[in-house]
Amino acid sequence: MKKIASSLSIWLLFVLGFMVQMDHLMMVPLSSDIAKAIDMPLTESGLLVSIYPIAAAISAFFLAPFSDRFGRKRMLLFLGTGFALSCLGCAMASNLEQMYLFRILSGVFGGLVLPNALAFAGDEFDDNAKVRAISTLTLAFPVASVMGVPIGAWLGDLYSWRLPFYALAALSLLCVAGLTSMQVSSGTKEHSIGRQYIQLLALWRNRRIQVVFAIQFFMLIGLFGFVPNLSVFLVSNFDMSTTAIGLCYMQGGVGAILGNVLARQLMQREFGVSLITAGSIIMALSLLGVTLEVFSAPFIGLSFAITMFGGSMRFPALQMILTDLVSTDLRGRLLAMSMIVSNLTMGLGGVWSLPLLEFEGERLVGMELIGLITFVSLCFVPPLVMVLQRIHK
Questions:
Q1: Fold of the domain spanning 2-182+193-392
Q2: How far is CA 59 from CA 53, 112, 113, in A?
């Protein structure tokens, strides 16, 4: 009975994770429309995407110990409710300041949902069951790309950019209601919150954790110089509509699902860090082609599929490594620390790329340089994977 309840909880967490990922991803095609509605310069619209991970990173630092202290259930109910209300705020925002506020709150609450869900999976399952649970949760990203982003973009084009946020708020609250019956570990009372903060910071002393975080940094720093500016790039240089961008994400999501399924099968056959290397190389080559405009408009969707196929191969393996690095009583904090690293990196990506962009007439220039930087940063991943393998031995 407990096994069935835990499996049901994984699927509820997958749905909530889907909502969180959809909220973040659909800002890419909607950012141009939102910027116009709230009188924001188009070249700065990428900030609507990059502000989310920065907020998530700050939130992860302050809230990380509470998952290990009070248990996964309390944290997930708190985070899910806050995320739903933040989506409602985004839907109702009428100016730039309000939109920034509610995008920050979306990051504060939504950004920590997946680390807590992954910590729950690491606590409740072992061996192949853990692989299946973790790969199911990480599948939220590609499924959101296939279904969530195109639907959000289509609703935005057909009715208003506000409607997808109203829908996310309502569906997220339904998920939270379902999670009230989930069975999870109750947390530890052995250490005070202050002591748990000290243990959180002490994780940085572990050599393997340092290398894993370095891998995360180079996996994301270039990529998220590209992603926040994608909408303006495709609208300006390829004359794409919001719906067309959403369809590109749908094709990318299909590639991501295939990559996730392949990763699950290979991980059950004891492939691990090699998936991170292979996925990063595929992604580096594809993104370079997109930003150099090697692909014409009809093939942008195919390039998305290749890019996200490579990207989704990497994350189940990375999350599996993270859940195995520490004991259960530290797992929530380690995964939160991982979220801090990844989200600060994503936010920094949106910042470093901004000065490189400008308009020449109606055409956006600078993306080719961003693509080259992205390619170089991803080339650092394979050597770091080799370092991690040597430390592990």
A1: Growth Hormone; Chain: A; (1.20.1250)
A2: 10, 8, 11
Q: 101 is written with which tokens?
A: 């506020």
pLDDT at 102: 92
- What does the domain layout of the chain look like in residue ranges? 2-182+193-392
In one letter, which amino acid is 215?
I
358: left (phi over 0), alpha (psi -120 to 50) or beta: beta
Contact (Cβ atoms closer than 8 angstroms) between residue 129 and residue 137? no
For residue 193, CA distances in Å to 61, 63, 218 come to: 12, 10, 31
Q: What is the total residue count of the chain?
A: 393
Q: Angle, nearest 10°, between helix axes 149-158 and 2-25? A: 50
Q: Which two tokens stand for residue 296?
A: 């014409």
Q: Which residues contact 333 (CB under 8 A, 6 or more apart)?
A: 64, 65, 67, 68, 196, 199, 200, 203
Alpha helices in the chain (DSSP H): 2-25, 27-37, 47-70, 72-92, 96-110, 113-124, 127-138, 140-143, 149-158, 162-179, 193-202, 207-220, 223-226, 230-238, 242-268, 273-291, 300-325, 328-353, 367-378, 381-392
Could you report the average pLDDT of every consecutive run of 10 residues in the chain (393 residues)? 64 86 81 80 74 80 70 84 93 87 90 80 73 77 73 80 90 87 58 68 82 91 82 84 77 83 81 86 91 82 88 82 73 75 78 84 86 93 90 65
Encoding tokens for residue 329?
Answer: 């009583």
pTM: 0.69
The owner of tokens 């920590």 is 112
Question: Strand 358-360 relative to strand 363-365: parallel, antiparallel, unpaired?
Answer: antiparallel
Q: What integer pLDDT is reported at residue 267 of this predicted model?
A: 82
Strand partners, 363: 360
The encoded tokens of residue 45 equal 């619209």
